[in-house]
Amino acid sequence: MINANVLFEMALGGGLVAASGALVAQARGKQAALRARQAAEAEVSRVRAAAELSVRQVRQAAAEEAEALRRQAATDREWRQAALAETQHLVERRLPRLVDVEARRHPGVEVPGPSQALLRGSPWEDLHQAALDLVREAVETTRASVGRSARAGVRGVADEAQTFLTKLQMKIDEELGKHPHATAYHQSLIEIDHFATRSLHTLQRLRVLAGSWPGTQRANASIREIVESARGRVGPYERVEYTYRPDVGELFVEGRVVEPIVVALAELMINATMYSSDTVSVYAQQVPAGCRIVVEDTGLGMNAFQLADAERLLSSRTLLDVTALEDERKLGFAVIGRLTHDYGFRVDVGAPSASGGVKAVLLVPTALMGEAPERGEASPVPLEEPGPAPAAAAPAAPPAGAPPQTTVSGLPKRQPKQLMTLPPSGPSQEAVTDTADAHDLADGFEQIRRALSTGYAQNDTDTGGFQ
């Protein structure tokens, strides 16, 4: 039998075991709680560190973006200032100088390039250059249009005036045949005829520069006739001394080029008499390449610049540009240049002159030399315009060796003319001439009148001729 003590001890022991177990469990719980707390604190620290890192990264990114924006803003501001400065440079310097060059034809003016290095190779440079090209094209197109209209007006007016002057000369020839020589009336008619001849020559040079032919078709003519015909178109013709040699003077030139050669030779004589107060020597020589006619004066000659300019005009087919009209009296070399290019003869002004003046040589190539015309064949054939019948038949050519025919005052004797309806055999003129009506001609004449007035107003102090 179990007594009470044993039971008490057993109960006490059990209680102690239970209490120990509870204490162990409690200790273990505390340890677990401690570990959980430590883990939580570690997690919080990790999350906090990650958040702080993220915040720093965001702040850094924001700072970098702000810096990039500041740099972009600075760049944009620099580009804007450069674009504004370049546009101002375009408007204030480049465009005005381009207009000076293209529209006003001011010599020695250079159009500057872009001023802002930042814009080199950028679309700004391309756009500004496109604007300059557009202005240049507009000026050229306008000038070409005005030039065509003006030249058409010149040709129309010149045709009409040349017809009237030709009829005037026919009337003069008729009167000369009625009245004896060495009378005051006869001499007056000779002087009037001389003025009419010079007026015709002035119209011819305008016709040539306006892209037309000289307006007169001739039969084959001798070198003597060509020289005398050109001499008769010079104001101070008495200062032009022609040394006649029958072996050369009676060589004949093809009729197709006679009048163009006469016009060119007259220009050389006019130039020589204009720049020399002494006698101008004219003589012809036969050379292996053909026949050359020399016009030599005793003036001051030409400097290197003038010679280069003359050679440039002689080698080009210059057209009358009424939008940049120079002194019409200085267009002689341009007239000769067009004629030599169109008809195949040559003119050179670079040969040295023993007198120190200008020695101009007109070479008629062998291919342009012709035969003497048939007896009774009309020598000069003016405009193709219809007109009255000739007053008298053309006289036969003088015999070989005969001196040049002149009037009592020494003026080269012009042969009576016959009007024929021959088409021009020279280069064709601009097509617009053939379609111009009276109103167009009147408008063209008015344009020329204004251009001439402006041109002479700008050069009214310059009294020089071409040289």
From TrEMBL:
It catalyses: ATP + protein L-histidine = ADP + protein N-phospho-L-histidine. Residues 373-438 are annotated as: Disordered. Gene3D superfamilies: Histidine kinase-like ATPase, C-terminal domain (3.30.565.10). The keyword Transferase applies. Transmembrane segments: none annotated. GO terms for molecular function: kinase activity. Keywords: Kinase, Phosphoprotein, Transferase. PANTHER family: SENSOR HISTIDINE KINASE TRCS (PTHR45436:SF5), SENSOR HISTIDINE KINASE YKOH (PTHR45436). This is histidine kinase.
